[in-house]
Amino acid sequence: MTRRILVVAHNHPDLHPGGTEILAHDLAAGYRAEGCEVLFLGATNQIHREAHPGTALQATGVDGDVLLWSGHFDRFYLSQIDHYGTLQDLAGLLQEFRPDVVHVHHLVLIGAEFLTLARRLLPQVKIVMTLHDYYPICHNDGLMARPSDKQRCMGASPTNCRSCFPEISADRFLLRERFLKTHLAAVDQFVAPSHFLRQRYVDWGLAGDRIEVIANARPACEPVPHRAKRGPRASFGYFGNVNPWKGVLELIKAATLLQASGLRGFELRIHGGAPFQSEAFVAAFETALVAAGAAVSHCGPYQREELPALMAEVDWVVMPSIWWENAPLVIQEAFQHRRPVIASGIGGMAEMVRDGVDGLHARPGDPTQLARVMRRAIEEKGLWERLVEGIAPQPTISDCASAHLALFDRLKLAEAA
């Protein structure tokens, strides 16, 4: 029933390979494989591209993807400032492509006004928005964590938010919430990749029957072989961006504690770069690496096609994030390659990794306890083999696309009825 889909994200994986961009782009390919006509629209700014005179729209990628250059954007309100230029170009794109479904994956750089614009110009279009993080709820980069002490937050309110940002008045936070909820009202159905994230939005005020849980997925792949067993399963890998919220410093500290306790013969490989991080954090990261010694190595950024070879070098994947991660693709990639995961037992991570079944939980932000979990992973006989056996087959991007298409069709059928 659904034949023409506009997929919208806040960047393009060729420019910024974050989890949301990668998932959105792979899902667009999944829709194409099901016979749909698909246009991928990613937004960018001066960090990755220069503006082109005369239009906010640019072309990129072999699939004919479109980029929206959005150099004027209000990050507090998630608002598109350029109503007379950028929004007019978006209006032209909507009217020319005339999708049956607009599938939005983020509001950053695109702007919340895009939802209302699509609803006004195309009254019959179905607007679906996947909630990948907590940006509409939380001004702190959608982390739902305090910027001062990194304590996790369970809910937003003007008073609570002002305690994190005392320079912003409580009434502005109230206006921000009402502004965003006004534009989000244009969405027909929300999708949450985890039950935890769904509940955070229900607590914020979105109706529960408007949020369906559909798990993220990765393209199908053949798992790489496990390392030849020459002693304990003692090779740990971290994959992803290196930043303060991913728990990398705590992970390195845990490895340092293991060495200080006399444990030898293990290694920790950290794969990922630290783009756009503060000088203070980068300095702390480099200092921690030096203190950790030879057991810890920073292998730098990697390309997606390099992941299988890197995964082949490790026995365990560690996801020590200290914020409420929603549905990290790294966990699914680890499970695809039959690697058990040590993850913080919070948020969507606790849903994806079943403690004692296909991985182990650790307490977030606690290097001492994480070190104990890693020691157990090395020393407990039969544990690694049992957890590998517990890893369930992972949904493919084809499965994920089919689930979304079924949702789109139900929305169409409900309208017809």
From TrEMBL:
The keyword Nucleotidyltransferase does not apply. Signal peptide: none annotated. Residues 17-216 form the Glycosyltransferase subfamily 4-like N-terminal domain. One of its GO terms (molecular function) is glycosyltransferase activity. Pfam families: Glyco_trans_1_4, Glyco_transf_4. Keywords: Transferase. SUPFAM superfamilies: UDP-Glycosyltransferase/glycogen phosphorylase. This is Glycosyltransferase involved in cell wall bisynthesis. It comes from Bosea lathyri. The lineage of its organism: Bacteria, Pseudomonadati, Pseudomonadota, Alphaproteobacteria, Hyphomicrobiales.
